[in-house]
Amino acid sequence: IIEAHLQLANHGITEDLIIPMLQALWTISNDQAIQHWNARLQQQEQAACKAERAAAKEETLHQHALNEEQELAKQEEQKKNKNKFIPIPDISVPTESIVLPSLCTLTKLQKADYCELYYLINCGLANAENTITSLNDEALMLTKSDNGIHSFISLSSIKAKSSLVKDEDLTLEEFGQAKFCMINGMRKSEWLEEHIQMHVDFWLSMETHEWHHNTSSYNRSSLLAYQACVHTLWHRTLGTPKAFNLAKFDDNFLKKI
């Protein structure tokens, strides 16, 4: 300011004009400095707000992903261990007899594998009820099939097969016992409704077939043999180009048995 005062005085400007001029110059300079400072502060605030919004968005996305991961883990846990999440009714201990299929049977139904009807008839269920389930039932044992192939199967499967009666060797009465339990097991194991209805129609076509009430034991046995053969084949061809509609009863195939 002193230097500016001297320069103005050297240029012949009188003292009464110098001070107002210096005040005006200072005001202009100060206003510009304030504007620059405010602009800088505004830029810093905008940058801080932008960074804060970006951080908040990232945190939201992270939390959303974490919630999805936890929900998927929860769903997987519920799927694997359904019994842990089943609501318990507020009732007393049931007095009637409770009959449940064997662990081997339940496993087959859960996997939608072929399951012999014997495990679901009265004597098969009674056998499962009298068999004590232990932790060792899930132990694997090395076995050899008829064609010489070695494989590991659970101990519970070996126990179940020890008393197995093949489907074709059942009676029509036993067949009638099994189908209702099988359909119920399918629904509890969350089979596709289309597959369940296909079995219902398949077994209904057997019960309404003329051979079902035929006096010939050969014809009745042929029906059971047809059921065993076609039912097994249906499971074997699932997921392959050879898959077929189980409910379409084939009389020509029946007569060839």
State the helix count.
9
Secondary-structure-derived class: mainly alpha
Strand line-up across the major sheet:
1-2
Distance between the termini: 120 Å
Number of domains: 2
Radius of gyration: 42 Å
Tell me, briefly, the overall form: rod-shaped
Query: How is the biggest beta sheet arranged?
Result: 2 strands, antiparallel
SSE sequence, one letter per element: HHHHEEHHHHH
| Proportion of helical residues | 55-70%
What does this structure look like?
With 257 residues, this protein is mostly helical. The protein folds into two domains: 1-82; 103-255, no CATH class. It has helices at residues 2-10, 15-80, 103-111, 122-130, 155-161, 172-188, 193-207, 217-237, 251-256; strands spanning 140-144, 150-154. It has a two-stranded antiparallel ribbon with strand order 1-2. Helix 1 packs antiparallel against helix 2 and helix 6 packs antiparallel against helix 7 (193-207). The longest helix is centred in the N-terminal third of the chain and has 66 residues, at 15-80. The protein is rod-shaped.
Question: What are the main properties of this structure?
Answer:
257 residues, two-stranded antiparallel sheet, 9 helices, mainly alpha, 2 domains, single chain
